[in-house]
Design goal:
CATH class of the largest domain: Alpha Beta
Distance between the termini: 14 Å
Strand content: 5-15%
Largest sheet: 7 strands, mixed
CATH superfamily of the largest domain: Type I PLP-dependent aspartate aminotransferase-like (Major domain)
CATH architecture of the largest domain: 3-Layer(aba) Sandwich
CATH topology of the largest domain: Aspartate Aminotransferase, domain 2
Helix content: 40-55%
Strand order of the largest sheet: 1-9-8-5-4-2-3
Oligomer: single chain
Structural class: alpha/beta
Radius of gyration: 21 Å
Number of strands: 14
Shape: globular
């Protein structure tokens, strides 16, 4: 039986942003006060500095910050000049933002299945879904590791399609292609997008996002679309939006960017602990790691085999241990799409099966070994109780 308690180890949380802040409090507080004292809140030096530093970190020519990760995706689609009725392929096993923006712009979302082991979009499913209306692919690097970008880029090149990488969960991960070249997530396709939502691996203290590209022409269009369609003030060349990262958030992100690789290391240490605890348990499948991609472990997601996932979740909750299900209802089964006459109804058996079996355990940069021991012992306690 599991005899450990929460005493002396602190409350277990899915993400502990308070403890993370306390470790950088003095530097963050000073940075925020400097921005407030300057009264430069929009498009100031902190935003410019973040864009330059993030571009250097990613090894990409252009970084354009914006209001949030959903805006980053929308601006990217707008900048590519896609027209209503054009089809965009993405995964159903992800958060709605990725597919929501496709429908919002009058484009047709085509959702396909994922790899059952890595949870990332299946390149063969992409190929099978392509029609003469297909214009782009949005692969989501789910839970922190890159999808099969060699195969995805090969399909895109064959059919002359744009690739917009959604790397909101995988910032800092890197992918090594078949030629041995390593690139950061979000820098392989034509455009990369990320979110700076507070719980993300690189998160601010509000909303924020960014877009990456190596292409000068695409970058110019992205900047215009994000700024009311302007290149020169009060001269609007295209229809755009108003989506800006503020100077306060940029100041925080510049500090956390310098720690991003340390944060990734801490998350990987947590994942290693979980792996070692569960590796020989047939009732659980630990996350499969793509050998071509490093892992940022935005989430640590187990797959339950022949056991009641919801029973495990309830067992953890009864002991004050949080867990999450990402995602309980696949996007292609959401009312928003089922009730949309332009959406093509489909069955995605792998995605539908995963939605019933996956469970994510707490993982963040400040976790203590005592907490990890309690979590893993509690999971084992449940499995032993039903064996």
């Amino acid at each position: 039986m599991c005899r450990r308690t929460h005493q002396d180890m602190g409350k277990i949380q899915m993400v502990d942003l308070v403890s993370q802040y306390k470790n950088i409090q003095e530097e963050v507080d000073n940075a925020i006060l400097n921005v407030v004292g300057s009264a430069a809140y929009i498009r100031g030096s902190e935003v410019k500095g973040l864009e330059e530093e993030l571009a250097a970190y990613l090894g990409i020519k252009h970084v354009i910050t914006c209001g949030n990760g959903t805006d980053a995706l929308q601006i990217s689609l707008m900048a590519l000049g896609l027209k209503p009725g054009d089809e965009v392929i993405s995964a159903s096993f992800t958060f709605i933002a990725t597919v929501e923006v496709i429908a919002l712009l009058g484009l047709i979302p085509v959702m396909v299945d994922v790899d059952p082991s890595t949870f990332n979009i299946d390149p063969k499913a992409i190929e099978n879904a392509i029609t003469d209306k297909t214009k782009a692919i949005i692969p989501v690097h789910l839970f922190g590791q890159c999808g099969n970008m060699d195969a995805i880029m090969e399909v895109a090149k064959k059919h002359d399609l744009y690739v917009i990488e959604d790397t909101a969960q995988a910032i800092s991960a890197a992918y090594t292609n078949n030629n041995g070249e390593t690139k950061k997530a979000g820098t392989i396709g034509h455009i990369g997008c990320t979110s700076f939502f507070p719980s993300k691996n690189l998160g601010c203290y509000g909303d924020g996002g960014a877009i990456f590209t190596e292409d000068d022409e695409i970058a110019e269009m992205l900047r215009m679309v994000a700024n009311h369609g302007m290149k020169k003030r009060y001269y609007h060349e295209v229809i755009g939006v108003n989506s800006r990262l503020d100077n306060l958030q940029a100041a925080v992100l510049r500090i956390k960017l310098r720690l991003l690789d340390n944060y990734k290391g801490a998350r990987n240490a947590v994942a290693d602990f979980y792996d070692n605890a569960f590796i020989n348990m047939e009732q659980l499948s630990i996350p499969e790691r793509n050998p071509q991609s490093s892992h940022a472990f935005h989430q640590y997601t187990l797959k339950c085999n022949g056991i009641d996932r919801d029973g495990l979740k309830d067992h953890l909750a009864a002991r004050d241990i949080p867990s999450m299900v990402y995602y309980p209802v696949p996007l292609h089964m959401q009312d928003a799409f089922i009730n949309n006459p332009s959406f093509k109804q489909t069955s995605l058996p792998i995605t539908e099966d995963l939605a019933k079996k996956v469970i994510s355990l707490p993982i963040h940069t400040e976790m203590k070994e005592e907490q990890l021991i309690l979590i893993t012992e509690t999971v084992k306690e449940y499995i032993n109780s039903i064996s």
